[in-house]
Amino acid sequence: MKERSNFTSKLGFVLAAAGSAVGLGNIWRFPYLAAKYGGGIFLLVYLILAVTFGFTIMLTEVALGRKTKLSAVEAFHKLDKNFGFIGYITCAVPIIIFPYYCVIGGWVVKYLTVYITGAGTSASQDGFFGSFISKPVEPVVWLSVFIFLTAAVVFLGVEKGIEKVSKWMMPILAVLSVAIAVYGLTIPGALDGVIYYIKPDFSRFSPTTVLAALGQLFYSMSLAMGIMITYGSYMKKQDNLEASVRQIELFDTAIAFIAGLMIIPAVFAFSGGDESILQAGPTLMFVTLPKVFNSMKIGTIIGVLFFVLVLFAALTSAISLMETIVSIFQDKLKWNRHVLCLIVMVFAIIVGIPSSLGFGIWDQVKIIGMSILDFFDFLSNSVIMPIVALATCLFVGFIIKPSAIVDEVKESSEFKSQKWYTVMIKWIAPICIIAILISSVLSALGYMSI
Ligand code: PHE
Predict the structure, then answer these.
(1) CA 382 to CA 444: how far, in whole Å?
(2) Counting Cβ atoms within 10 Å, is residue 362 exposed (0-12), middle (13-18) or buried (19+)?
(3) Most confident of 143-147, 261-265, 368-372, 411-415
């Protein structure tokens, strides 16, 4: 059999995995959650959870992949024949997410072209976004362009495609985010926004702060969707696993933090300190920011740079989703990568179309009160992902035992956090996950607001 592909270096692995982790979640979701849940206090809670909980789950997934050299669907089965079903549930997540993630990716490509063609002012007009996403055809065209770009990279394979692209996109992404943040901070009034972002407001601390941070952490670090298992399966045995996981987390959290600095102070100054605008959520990026850019002297340039940054973030995440799906079928059916790429590409366009139409001609279609895209998002992030994470923790904690993971980590280095890891994976992480699962279901049913 053909030997499994590998990332050629630890850096290649770290940047590709960070590419998956850094996505739309970091750029629009993190800043607005931080604004909503008390600024500095949210940052602090998030940070503590990242180095404890996030570290535990990510390390587990990467180790499962590297140990078995298989993607999620086969990895669980290989370690224990009775628990192969966890692999199947895990696979459902990227298959559900990929099509609708590409719908949003398509919007990003559209906005980038609007700014590149110098039409940024039109994007800042009221109604621009709403009228664009409700069109039947245009968003589908952009969705297809985005999927095509993603597929081109996955088609080229792990070393020549994913690793190469991550190695140049991720550093550019980091530089752009710092540059835009620094420019934003020079706007008069922006410093008050920085204080609003960073200063802890303890009065806003509540258990929901922890739950919101935990939910964000999952999504942001691409956990519980088989991605880190797949990428781990391409990692070399001699590359330091513990250090790599720490670096991925650091990269992801740093970009989320800088995204906050990039967005919150600028919007704060623009809106004269109106918090409700910051807490508007999803529309922040496509509706409010274009208005902010329009008020800047070099708004068109900032707009282009910003949407390049967002496009890179979205692309590297979409690539990881598509690679995970392709590798599942490669392992399972032993089909050719190129054929699979074409099939997954067509599948994603077809399944993405209803999510896109849900904002226009199909906006009457509601599933448990949600639009089609929101429903897919809810199903994957709030229901299946916590179940997968819980199953993974219990599988490692009680079936194959934490020592299986510990041994894998030790293949490449000492395991400094070994004791702590064992307690986390067996007890603390499962309890946290059960809390997320209960709260997200309650909030979907309208009993709680997150
Ligand atoms: N981690 C990505 C983010 O922060 C989200 C993502 C979702 C990535 C699904 C890959 C797959 O936006």
Answers:
(1) 9
(2) middle
(3) 143-147
CA separation, residue 378 to residues 32, 171, 324, 382 (Å): 18, 32, 20, 5
Single-letter amino acid, residue 157: G
Degrees to nearest 5, angle at CA 12 with 215 and 342: 75
19 lines ligand 1 (CB under 6 A): no
Take atom 8 of ligand 1 and give the residue whose Cα is closest: 317
Q: Which amino acid is at 396?
A: V
Q: What is the pLDDT of residues 198-217, one digit of tens each?
A: 998 888 888 888 888 988 99
Distance between CA atoms of residues 50 and 70, nearest Å: 26
The structure tokens 């991605």 sit at 227
> In this structure, what token pair is assigned to residue 107?
């919007």
CB-CB contact of 269 with 189 (8 Å):
yes
CA of 227 to the centre of ligand 1 (A): 10
Q: Are 293 and 114 in contact (CB under 8 A)?
A: no
Query: Residue 200 burial (CB < 10 Å; 0-12/13-18/19+)?
Result: middle
pLDDT at 439 (0 to 100): 84
Q: What pLDDT is attached to residue 277?
A: 83
d(CA 169, CA 39): 29
Does the Cβ of 321 fall within 6 Å of ligand 1?
yes
Q: Which of 213, 158, 141 is nearest to 436 (CA)?
A: 213
Collapsing DSSP to helix, strand or coil, 4 comes out as coil
Q: Which residues pair with 96 in a beta bridge?
A: none
Q: Is 129:287 a contact under the CB 8 Å cutoff?
A: yes
Give me the amino acid identity at 69.
K
Q: What is the C-alpha to C-alpha distance for residues 364 and 174, in angstroms, rounded to an integer?
A: 40
Residue 30 alpha carbon, nearest atom of ligand 1: 4
Mean pLDDT of 22-27: 94
Q: Is 186 exposed, middle or buried (0-12, 13-18, 19+ CB in 10 A)?
A: exposed
